[in-house]
Write a structure and sequence with these properties.
The structure is a single chain. A hairpin with a 2-residue loop joins strand 2 and strand 3. The protein has about 325 residues and is of the alpha+beta class. The protein folds into two domains: about 110 residues, no CATH class; about 130 residues, Histidine kinase-like ATPase, C-terminal domain (Heat Shock Protein 90, 2-Layer Sandwich). The protein has nine helices and five strands, in the order H-H-H-H-H-H-H-E-H-E-E-H-E-E. Helices cover about 70% and strands about 10% of the residues.
């Protein structure tokens, strides 16, 4: 490239001498200077600028340019040489800015890939724990329930009513433990989102929260139970899950309302509670950051604000590819 640009400068100088000083070819000298500054760096650009100024002076001096005589000639040389040097500096500066921009874009893409990896690893770990709960602990508790039920029946046959009553209480406690373990497993593994659809999965989530936390958690929706995009549905489910978890654990809410509305190609998910309310909606808590990131992954927007009275409102709006999908 350096050889080609130097050859180009020589060709331009030859043409400049042929056309005489009456036709100015100075802008043509600037092109190779800019190219060398862009691709080869500032040093080569400045060197090309100096060479261009020298070639220009030679081409016009030997053709009898009167502007190159005396102090006017010195001024013309400085003016034209300064112009070419500025071209070299501008070219190298633009290339440096372009490199910085490219590095920032690459860093941003790398950061986004890491964020996606973190979310995917989190999802995989939650699925593993949930599957272990469902296939391991839940089945173990179910087996204990059957054993306790058999023990209760045997005690009743032997006429040991007091002991049978105690065994019956044990059966009920184990049955409740099975239900709670199954609910925990479903919270960790939202596989039923693809099986039931987003609407029914959100309704099941509110019922599970009511059983597990003893709060009044209600669900309202005007959307049908159509098969939503599973990727979007999973992230919306997780956003609702995290918002409800914050309301119960941090907000100490007694009533939680989950609204899901869809019209045309847009949808809106809202979680409203009557808890203590978030102190700083713009805080950088991990749960809030993950909710915001999930919203960005589906092309949506998440807003968090305090209610006028008491509590917090978490709202996520997004667009689907087609109505109801």
């Amino acid at each position: 490239m350096i050889a080609e640009m130097v050859a180009s400068l020589i060709v331009i100088a030859v043409l400049d001498s042929i056309t005489s000083y009456q036709i100015r070819l100075l802008p043509f000298y600037a092109v190779p200077v800019f190219v060398l500054a862009w691709f080869c760096g500032k040093t080569w650009g400045i060197a090309a600028g100096v060479l261009s100024a020298l070639l220009w002076w030679c081409a016009n001096r030997f053709t009898g340019d009167p502007d190159l005589d005396g102090w006017i000639g010195v001024w013309e040389v400085l003016r034209h040489g300064g112009f070419l040097l500025i071209v070299a500096l501008v070219g190298s500066a633009l290339r440096a800015k372009s490199n910085i921009t490219a590095e920032r874009i690459a860093l941003l893409e790398h950061s986004q890939r890491l964020e996606r990896e973190i979310v995917n690893i989190s999802e995989a770990e939650q699925r593993r724990i949930g599957q272990d709960l469902h296939d391991g602990l839940c089945q173990y508790l179910a087996g204990l329930t059957c054993s306790a039920s058999s023990l209760r029946d045997d005690l009743q046959k032997l006429g040991l009513q007091l002991d049978a009553k105690t065994a019956d209480e044990l059966v009920m406690l184990l049955q409740d433990a099975v239900v709670q373990t199954r609910d925990l497993a479903r919270k960790l593994v939202p596989a039923h989102v693809s099986q039931l659809g987003l609407v029914l999965a959100l309704e099941s989530l509110t019922q599970s929260v009511t059983r597990l936390h003893g709060v009044n958690c209600r669900f309202r929706s005007n959307a049908s139970s159509a098969n939503w995009n599973e990727y979007m549905a999973t992230h919306l489910y997780r956003i609702a899950q995290e918002a409800i978890n914050n309301a119960t654990r941090h907000g100490k809410a007694g009533n939680i309302f989950l609204f899901f509305n869809a019209a045309g190609c847009s949808l809106r998910l809202r979680v409203v509670d009557d808890g203590a309310g978030i102190s700083d909606p713009d805080s950088d808590g991990m749960g809030l950051d993950i909710m915001r990131y999930r919203a960005r992954l589906i092309g949506g927007e998440l807003t968090i604000r305090r209610r006028n009275g008491r509590g917090t409102i978490v709202s996520c709006t997004a667009r689907t590819a087609s109505p109801g999908k």
